[in-house]
Design a protein that fits this description.
Largest interface: A-B, 25 and 17 residues
Shape of chain A: elongated
Strand content of chain A: 25-35%
Low-confidence stretches of chain A: 1-6
Largest sheet of chain A: 9 strands, mixed
Oligomer: heterodimer
Strand content of chain B: 5-15%
Helix content of chain B: 40-55%
Strand order of the largest sheet of chain B: 1-2-3-4
Largest sheet of chain B: 4 strands, antiparallel
Radius of gyration of chain B: 26 Å
Radius of gyration of chain A: 25 Å
Shape of chain B: elongated
Number of strands of chain A: 17
Number of strands of chain B: 4
Number of helices of chain A: 10
Distance between the termini of chain B: 62 Å
Structural class of chain B: alpha+beta
Number of helices of chain B: 11
Chain lengths: 390, 324
């Protein structure tokens, strides 16, 4: 009687209907989810068995401990929600309830084979993986580069900032939305236990964040302290936090300086045709910019830049003046672009980030650099709104 | 299944009744009387004699377990009850008492297994069900503590499970006021009446003194933090005992003046008490360690603090304060 009531309320508390999609999750999480599903279907002994097995290998899985507490308490008296510890700090219980919801929601994530995330338009051959964070699902997706196309390989439960997304200011405890790259690696030996098995800083604030005057620093992908398997979905100061085992698995796939991390409120799946069309459109625009530059027809070349273009503090007018002067002195220009990465920028504005190796040669100067451009749609055409060294 | 049980129990009762014999019944009754009078040493001596004369006397061995429990020898008592469950697996009472002893030592999983055995032999054994409910609640509380990283300090080993006081007898043994600290509180039980509807008269179940006091001490610490956060210097200083050890040995009045100044000056103060751990030196002296968070408009610090409190006229007051 008491237990049946508990099961019904549990399902209610988590807004849990029957699972639409059953998918394979990694061991500790799969055991937890199976236990939660068991509870939803009033199979309490089986649920407790799952939880006990899970805790035998991961005693620091706090949510599992909480569910174990509920399962045991339900044998002693009726309970009507998740987390019935008397006198417990409510924010901690709420955090674990949020994690339970998130873990269950993750179980229902669909990763359709025929679709790819709209954000990943083109991956250069050298770049093996790309990451997309879907904050609505507390999930970091990993995609593999298979001949330029993104193929889903794994996903992990993650914690983001206490106050959610859209980081604007230092200390706002938010995780930024945008296109970022893993820029370095901090081994666990150099960190306190708080960061768990290691950390991978990303380049927040990126070029576009600087343009918009966003500040703050130190947004990392990192692990979890020893005393807990995971943290609630929203608990960090803005960092992206993974379970240590997950971070270790992910670490093997990261390429410092090149693996992109797209952080969005939701992962937008698209059919191959749609991605293809957008990619072609952008690659054509980039190619036009390259050709216009080589043509030394500066006015045509400048048509590729948006009205609100900036580069290192220069306005479009200042940039134009400088280009007119520099190009006039040249007898010829050759520009070659290789390893082009194209990523769609998450957010309201339609924007894309192109990163590539630029081999520039001219009658009086040659150089080679890694360049990054931010492209927006203006007047029905893709135009560059920021350009600089990456 | 359920039809078989009364028969099984009847057979067991009959077998045991034949074993007792009249001669030993006298010794048993003496021991039982001494036990009820609180004369545990003498009771133990008598019952040892009864057992020596008839090693298979379940009732005598059961009483020996009870005496050892009252003598605060839980490990010896556990041995006695365990042997009884081995020799008479069909009797639920030894399982129940074994469970109570395990629970008193914080061994909830063992307690649970023993109670499940008691219930397996007698599915309608209501005391075992009730005790099992308490054990589950206790295990739940342990799991919650792990989930929420709570350390409830000395709250361990305080259970209120019912110990069965007699085997094969409906006579009621009142819970003595003699139960020592650490020994479980007795909930009066009419034994061997496997009837869900039996009318037990539960004796009052006083809270274990440690738990109520722990809460009182925590309440005092919370009140202190609240007064500080409210910048209420009078209420804050009222939490310090007359005999408070002023840090650095400066005069109390000077310390109070400094505190008043520090408490009233900031525009806002927020003091938090994280993961408090309470332990007791004596019944009226408690030590509370916690993570103190202090946040004002000018300062934001976090550190370990230890407060020592003593009980003065039913109020817990601070006698020593240390940042670790």
């Amino acid at each position: 009687m008491a237990i049946a009531a508990a099961g019904a309320s549990y399902a209610w508390a988590m807004g849990l209907g029957p699972p639409a999609v059953a998918r394979q999750l990694a061991a500790p999480e799969a055991m937890l989810v199976r236990a939660l599903l068991d509870i939803g279907e009033s199979r309490f002994s089986s649920a407790l068995e799952q939880i006990d097995n899970l805790l035998a290998s991961n005693p620091n899985f706090r949510l599992a401990q909480l569910v174990k507490g509920d399962l045991l308490l339900a044998r002693s008296r009726p309970i009507n929600s998740i987390g019935n510890a008397s006198g417990a700090p409510s924010d901690q219980v709420d955090g674990l309830r949020e994690e339970a919801r998130a873990r269950l929601a993750r179980y229902q994530i669909e990763t359709p084979h025929e679709l790819a995330p709209r954000f990943l338009l083109q991956m250069p051959q050298k770049q093996k993986y790309a990451l997309v964070l879907d904050s609505s699902k507390s999930t970091l997706f990993v995609f593999e580069n298979t001949g330029g196309a993104a193929r889903y390989v794994a996903d992990y439960y993650v914690t983001i900032g206490k106050n959610g997304l859209e980081k604007l200011r230092q200390g706002d405890k938010r995780t930024p939305v945008g296109v970022y790259h893993v820029v370095s690696q901090l081994p666990k030996e150099k960190l306190t236990d708080f960061y768990g098995s290691g950390a991978f800083p990303i380049n927040y604030p990126n070029e576009w964040d600087h343009v918009r005057g966003r500040d703050g620093y130190g947004i990392w992908l990192h692990g979890t302290p020893r005393d807990t398997y995971s943290r609630p979905p929203r608990a960090s100061d803005g960092c992206i936090v993974l379970a240590n085992a997950d971070l270790d698995a992910l670490a093997r796939k990261l390429q410092i300086g090149s693996t992109p991390v797209v952080i969005a409120d939701a992962l937008d799946w698209a059919g191959p045709g749609e991605v293809e069309a957008l990619r072609t459109d952008l690659l054509t625009s980039i190619e036009r910019w390259r050709r216009d530059w080589e043509s030394r027809n500066t006015e045509t070349y400048l048509q590729n830049y948006a009205r609100k273009f900036t580069s290192n503090g220069m306005t479009l007018a200042q940039w134009s003046a400088q280009k007119r002067q520099v190009n006039a002195a040249k007898a010829w220009i050759k520009v070659q672009l290789t390893d082009v990465s194209l990523l769609l920028y998450p957010g309201k504005e339609e924007m894309a980030v192109a990163t590539f190796e630029q081999d520039y040669a001219s009658s009086n100067l040659s150089n080679r650099m890694k360049k990054r451009q931010y492209w927006i749609r203006e007047g029905g055409k893709w135009r560059i709104v920021y350009e600089g060294a990456a | 299944m359920s039809r078989l049980q009364p028969a099984a129990l009847g057979a067991a009762l009959l077998a045991l009744a034949l074993q007792w014999g009249l001669a030993f019944a006298d010794t048993y009754d003496d021991a039982s009387r001494l036990f009820k009078q609180g004369n545990h040493a003498a009771a133990l001596e008598k019952i040892e004699a009864a057992i020596a004369a008839n090693p298979r006397d379940a009732r005598a061995r059961f009483l020996k377990g009870l005496i050892l429990t009252e003598q605060n020898k839980p490990n010896d008592a556990i041995k006695v009850f365990t042997a009884l469950t081995d020799d008479y697996p069909e009797l639920p009472e030894p399982y129940n008492n074994l469970a109570v002893l395990h629970a008193s030592q914080g061994q909830y999983d063992k307690a649970r297994k023993a109670l499940e055995m008691a219930i397996r032999t007698h599915p309608s054994y209501s005391i075992a069900h009730e005790n099992l409910g308490d054990v589950y609640a206790k295990m739940a509380s342990e799991a919650y503590d792990k989930a929420l990283q709570l350390d409830r300090g000395n709250a361990a080993a305080q259970t209120k499970l019912a110990m069965i006081k007699d085997l094969f007898s409906s006579s009621v043994v009142p819970g003595k006021g003699t139960s020592q600290a650490g020994v479980t509180e007795a909930r009066v039980a009419a034994a061997a009446t496997p009837d869900a509807n039996d009318k037990k008269q539960p004796s009052p179940k006083p809270l274990a003194p440690g738990k109520a006091e722990t809460e009182a001490v925590l309440a005092a610490v919370m009140g202190w933090a609240k007064a500080w956060s409210a910048k209420d210097a009078d209420a804050y200083l009222a939490h310090y005992a007359p005999g408070f050890q002023v840090p650095g040995g400066e005069p109390r009045a000077a310390w109070e003046a400094t505190r008043r100044d520090r408490i009233t000056k900031p525009k806002s103060i927020e003091v938090t008490v994280g993961s408090p751990k309470v332990s007791f030196d004596t019944n009226s002296r408690a030590i509370v360690s916690f993570r103190q968070g202090y946040k004002s408009d000018t300062l934001n610090t976090y550190g370990a603090k230890t407060l020592t409190l003593t009980k003065n006229n039913d109020r817990w007051l601070i006698v020593q304060e240390r940042m670790n």
